[in-house]
Predict the 3D structure of the following.
Amino acid sequence: MEGKVIFGKREAISILLVLICNQLILGFPSIMSNSVGSAGWIMTIYVSIITLCLFLIMAKLYSAFEGKDLLDIGEFVGGNIIRIIVGLLVVIDTVFLISIKLREYTEHIKIISFTQSPVSFITLFFTLGMIISVYYGIEPLVRSASIVVPVVAVGIIIVVAGSVKNFEFSNIMPILGTGPYDIFVGGLPRISIYSGLLPLFFIPPFMGGYKDIKEIGILAIIISSVVLTLGILAYLLVFPYPTSANSVLPFFELSRVLEYGRFFQRIESVFLLTWSLAGMIYLSSGLYFIVYVFSKTFRLKYYRPLIIPFTLIIFASSLIPKSLIEIMYIDNKIIRYYSWIITFGMTLILLVIARLVKRKKRGMAKNGK
Amino acid sequence: MGSKTRKIFIVLIVLIMCFSMTGCFDKREVDDLVNPIAIGLDKGRNRSIRMTLQIAIPTKVAGGGEGGGGGGGKESVSYTTVEAPSIYSGLNMINTYVSKQLNMSQIKVLVFSEELAREGIEKYVNSLMRGREFRPNSYLLVARGSGNAAERYLRAVEPELESNPAKYYEMVLSAYSYTGFSSNTTLVNFYKNMVSESSQPLAVLADISKFENSDDINMDNSTYREKGRDFPLEGDFKAGDMPKVGTIKSEIMGLAVFNGAKMVGEFDGEETQLQLMLEGDFGYSYVTIPDPIAEDYVVLLSIRQNRKPKRTVEMIDEKPNIKVKIYLEADILSIQSGINYESIDKVKILEDSAEEFIEKDLAKMLEKTAKEFKSDTPGFGKEMKGKFLTWDEWINFNWIEKYPESKFEVDVDLKIRRPGLMLRTYPATGIEVGEE
């Protein structure tokens, strides 16, 4: 892996936005509504604030390790063993996540368009796309992300703006949904919705200094929180609870009720385009992240030979769940509850230990003097 | 991999992807599909349903065949009726004898018979919402009458002005914005209200004209008597009862009122207008009101609603106290008596009279929703819901059960803006009181 700066802030923010906001077009709005009823948007804001605070703490701790990624920091803390443990944890977590998301995208496209095609057949096309884009490396991937993000943004804006006439403010009442406990205590593990931030701690070798990472992280969290909050708010303003908690594809459902007079109907075709673009970039970025972390963990010179084996693992794992119901259960009850453990838990612990080790080493060096 | 080999590889992959995605499992030639535009559901025998499909004939709709210009009316559609245990099994059965595969994504109207609607249509609405091909924006109608009312209605639809029957349904069902005699009762709206704790669903009433020629026309089924009027106004009818004859037999007027998923009553055209005013969805319409001074005459206004109504709900002695203020604007279209209501000193008389007329009808209509139908069709529960902090508190409050105890205070603010193209009405010479 090259350690030189090969992309800028805009590209980094774009890829993080794709990694975090893709869930808006999957089941996120109905999952949030299912958790806290009409207060799904409040929980999104709350979770975003918590994430921002956590990130600021992490960025502060990280400031002492400018230019290093989590693997370098792991190595600094405990040599090869910690580096390998950190690397493997990240790889396993991401393989699990991408497998589930791959199947989710596949199932959704099966519901929307390819109703008669076997799941494996549709998955194959996603995986082929992933292989090709990862083969050409990170640079084309992030540059594509920076091109795709505005297109996806326009698609989302069309859907949200078109829904304004269907907005009913009584739909977000009672304001606290299923209750403040569910939002502020039960909602804490929901910081997992920002687990897409994890790659941020692996891009320093491709980027500038510590300030860049901090700025990118803050901007990515703020923009994502705005997008996610507005998205779920638009959905809830159109579909009242409990209807809102019922949909498999909430944003698709939102786009289906849109009509601009008699001439512009079936706006969901716009949604399909943006949905597949975002999905492809998301899955490809995930695969690239896996092979990159794995190759760096084991100090492999080339990452390309890893693409096919990891794709096969992801492809096979994605076919393990028996149904979409099982996939949605995993997404809702496991991924969106526990994926914070790696992104925030492991990273924070590692950074705190690294800080302590660094202080200790500095103390020892001083005493030695 | 060399640059040339790589290019060939990429082109090959792209070609394989393109061809296999378009030509494999989901291959559906447009020519092999047939598009029903309306579906009618009646009660069948032995727990089954009788399903009627109105199918568009593509060549006729597109203006093909000899003569061109489209078929129009019945020529452009075909009908089939089947008895089946459910909607989807019925579609399966129809697919066995229709040469093309049914594609339900062009369905514009879903018609339930009154009999089925009174029994409850929850299971059908749920399955329609779950189905990918059915559009959430399809209109939901209830065909009045006993027996196979839905089938009867669909077979009577003859859109003479439209070669495309789908366009006919779109146009006629969106006409509420300039008539106020029906409402936006789409499938998704019906479903949202059906499962809602704060409002109840409605569906457009449909029926076939009862009169064959103009001599048969009578006002027996008009609702004017129960409203205490001496003569019927244009809104005092429900679908099927309109005093009209013509080649277009199908009628749409009024609303079917539901409590949950069961039909419990009907609104006539005027009550439908008032329902739209209460929701803030009343576009504009010609409204006839009695002349405030000359008893035997009427004044015709073009009324529109430019502001959302102000609605408040308070609990007084455990009973909902509902206050509604409706803001309307009007243009004068006709003053049969010739009294100069356009003048600055008399316009207030007309405004007050119109306000009083609408307020009286509104109060009656609201009492009817609460006492007779026990169904919160205007959705006042939405205002009440805002007073609660959590969902459990709101559910435990049980608004649906409290609504029938409601007391209503209605206030209408109507301002006459324009007198049309005449500043005053001059009586015809030779008679005492001017007439149009």
The CA atoms of residues 39 and 53 of chain B lie 5 Å apart. The mean pLDDT of chain B is 86.
